[in-house]
Design goal:
The chain is mostly beta strands.
Length: 547
C-alpha cells in the first residue's frame, strides 16, 4: 500500500471517529456577523484579568493540570470554533478538544502521523508532513498543500471566507498560501520580509478588521499583518509561539482575544489581548540610519568595539528578528587573539515617563564559554550622580531572540541611559549584537543632561533637519517649568503631543518621534509643524516627514 492509499484509509477512519458522539459534542457556536464583541461573555473564570495593552496575557490554561500527555514541546497547531479550542498534540498524534471555561479536555481522537497545523473552515482542517496533505476532520476533504520550497506546512487560518483557507509555509519562502477547499487549488500567497526573513509557525485571521496575525518561535514575535502581508505596525514579543487562533467574539472576555499555544517545556495555552492599543513607544532605536545617538566607551572601532554592521553579518541564523538592514555588533573573533575586547554601548540620555515599565530589545550572542558575558543595564541620574544597574547578564549562547526587562523601578529618576556591556575576558571569543531597542511608556528622548554653564536660547536648534525619515527634534528652554511640544498637520489639526511635563528642567533636549499620531497610527508623508510652548514663550518649526 503506497502513502496516498494509506492516507485515504486513515482519513476515512478519522471521519468515522469524528462523525459519532464526539462530533455531536463539538457544536460550533455561531458568530453574530453584525457584532464585533460578545455582549454575553462569561464572567465565570475568576482568573481572567482585564486587558491593559496589546500582548498582555489575560488567561493561562495549564494543560498538564487538565491531563494533557507529554509536555509543551509537543504542542503544534491550535484553532478555535467559537466554543472549543482544538490542539494538535505531537506526543501521541491526537487532536485534543479543550473547553476553556473549565478548563477541561472534552475528548481526543487520533490524527495522521506528523500532523502539525490546524485551522477551521466549516470543520477543522489539519496539515501533516509525511505526504504533505491538508485534510478535513469530520469530513472527507483533503488536498496536497506543500508550496514555496517549504519543508512543511504549519498553521491554518480560520474564519477567512467560505470555501477558502490559508496555510503557513515553514522553510522556502516562509509565506502564507491561500487554497480553495475542498479542491485544494492554490490561488494566492502573501509575505513580507519583516516576518518571512525567518520561518513562523502560527497563523490566524481576524475577520472583523480583516487582518492576519502571524508569529513563531524563531522570531519570538507576533505581528498583525494586512491581507497583502504587510505589517500594520502593531506587534508584540511572545516567546516560543507554536500556533495562533483569533477569536473575535470571545465567550470568556468582552473584547476579542488571541489564543497562543507555545512550544516549550512548560505546557500552557495563553489567552492574549490583541485589541487594546500598542503600548506607547516613543523611543525606538533600529540603527537603520546609523548610531542614532548611541555612543561607546573604549575609543576603538569595530570589530574591537560596538559598531553598525549588516544585520546578517554572521549569517541568517544569528540575525536578530525583524532587524532590517543593520544592527549593532561587536566581534571578538574578528578582533583576534591579541585584543581584550571590552566595550559599553550607551543610548542617548532620556527623561523617563511615569508609565515607563519595560525595556525591549532584539539580541543575539555567540558565547565562547570562558567567562565571556554581555550585560544589559540601566543608568539613572538622581540629580547629583549617575548609578549603573545590571539588569540581565548573558553567559550562554542566545540565538536571535527578542527579550525584555522590567524597568518600572526607574521611572521616577531625572534621567536614564540604557547600556550593553561586552567583555570577552581577554580570550579569543565570538560576537554579539542587539537591535530594535525600545522603551514603552510616555518617555521622551533627551540628547544630553541640561547644561547650566552656558547661555540657553529658547527655541528649536538652528541646524535641526527639517526633511527627515526619522525625526530627531532638538529644542532648548531657558527656565524650569511646564513644557509642551506638539505636532500639527498643515490644516492645524493636532497630530501628536510629544512632551507635556509640568516641571521640566531648563536645558537642551532631543525628542525622537516614531511617525505615529496620538492614536498610534502611522502618519502620512507631508508637511507638519512643531510648536514648543513654555509659559508665555512659544516657537514654531516646519518639519517635512518622509517614510
Amino acid at each position: 500500500m503506497n502513502k496516498v492509499s494509506t492516507l485515504i484509509l486513515c482519513l476515512a477512519l478519522i471521519s468515522i471517529l469524528f462523525a459519532g458522539p464526539t462530533k455531536n459534542a463539538i457544536s460550533k457556536q455561531p458568530y453574530d456577523t453584525n457584532s464585533r464583541i460578545n455582549t454575553k461573555a462569561s464572567t465565570g473564570p475568576v482568573h481572567v484579568d482585564d486587558g491593559r495593552a496589546l500582548g498582555d496575557i489575560l488567561l493561562t490554561i495549564d494543560l498538564a493540570a487538565i491531563g494533557m500527555p507529554g509536555d509543551g514541546n509537543d504542542n503544534a497547531g491550535l484553532t478555535w470554533d467559537g466554543t472549543y479550542l482544538y490542539l494538535v498534540n505531537m506526543y501521541d498524534n491526537n487532536l485534543y478538544v479543550i473547553d476553556p471555561m473549565g478548563p477541561t479536555i472534552v475528548n481526543n481522537s487520533p490524527l495522521l502521523p506528523s500532523s502539525w497545523g490546524i485551522g477551521y473552515e466549516q470543520n477543522p482542517w489539519v496539515t501533516e508532513n509525511i505526504t504533505h496533505y491538508c485534510y478535513e476532520i469530520g469530513g472527507s476533504g483533503s488536498f496536497y498543500c506543500l508550496q514555496g520550497g517549504a519543508f512543511g506546512m504549519a498553521d491554518v487560518s480560520e474564519n477567512w471566507q467560505d470555501g477558502e483557507l490559508w496555510i503557513l509555509a515553514v522553510g522556502g519562502t516562509n509565506k502564507a498560501y491561500k487554497f480553495t477547499v475542498p479542491a485544494g487549488t492554490c490561488t494566492d500567497s502573501i509575505g513580507d520580509p519583516t516576518w518571512t526573513s525567518t520561518s513562523q509557525r502560527g497563523l490566524t485571521y481576524d475577520p472583523w478588521d480583516e487582518k492576519f496575525w502571524v508569529g513563531g518561535w524563531n522570531s519570538n514575535m507576533v505581528w498583525e499583518i494586512n491581507t497583502d502581508g504587510t505589517p500594520t505596525g502593531r506587534q508584540f514579543s511572545f516567546n516560543n509561539v507554536a500556533s495562533l487562533a483569533y477569536d473575535w467574539q470571545s465567550t470568556l472576555h468582552p473584547e476579542p482575544v488571541l489564543w497562543v499555544a507555545t512550544n516549550e517545556a512548560s505546557n500552557y495555552i495563553y489567552m492574549v489581548d490583541p485589541d487594546n492599543p500598542q503600548p506607547a513607544i516613543t523611543l525606538l532605536w533600529d540603527f537603520e540610519d546609523g548610531l542614532q545617538g548611541w555612543t561607546h566607551t573604549n575609543g576603538l572601532l569595530f570589530p574591537e568595539a560596538w559598531g553598525i554592521e549588516a544585520s546578517d553579518y554572521q549569517g541568517v541564523s544569528w540575525q536578530i528578528p525583524a532587524s532590517g538592514d543593520s544592527s549593532m555588533w561587536i566581534d571578538s573573533d574578528a578582533a583576534g587573539s591579541g585584543t581584550w575586547v571590552q566595550d559599553t554601548a550607551l543610548s542617548p540620555v532620556f527623561v523617563p515617563g511615569a508609565t515607563m515599565d519595560w525595556l525591549k530589545y532584539g539580541f543575539t550572542y555567540n558565547d565562547e564559554g570562558i567567562s565571556n558575558r554581555v550585560i544589559v543595564g540601566i543608568k539613572y541620574y538622581d540629580g547629583s550622580s549617575w548609578t549603573a544597574v545590571a539588569l540581565k547578564t548573558y553567559t550562554a549562547d542566545t540565538i536571535s531572540e527578542c527579550d525584555s526587562v522590567d524597568v518600572s523601578a526607574y521611572n521616577g529618576y531625572n534621567f536614564i541611559q540604557i547600556y550593553f556591556y561586552y567583555d570577552d575576558n581577554n580570550t579569543w571569543a565570538w560576537y554579539a549584537a542587539f537591535d530594535n531597542v525600545m522603551i514603552n511608556g510616555d518617555t521622551t528622548g533627551i540628547a544630553e543632561v541640561p547644561k547650566t554653564d552656558e547661555p540657553l536660547v529658547f527655541g528649536f536648534a538652528p541646524d535641526m533637519p527639517t526633511l527627515t525619515k526619522h525625526p530627531v527634534i532638538s529644542y532648548t528652554t531657558n527656565t524650569q517649568g511646564k513644557i509642551c511640544l506638539k505636532i500639527y498637520d498643515n490644516t492645524g489639526r493636532l497630530i501628536k503631543t510629544l512632551v507635556d511635563r509640568q516641571n521640566e528642567p531648563a536645558g537642551t533636549k532631543t525628542v525622537f518621534w516614531n511617525g505615529k499620531d496620538d492614536n498610534l497610527r502611522n502618519v502620512a508623508n507631508g508637511i507638519y509643524f512643531l510648536q514648543l510652548q513654555a509659559g508665555e514663550k512659544s516657537a514654531t518649526q516646519k518639519l517635512i516627514y518622509i517614510k
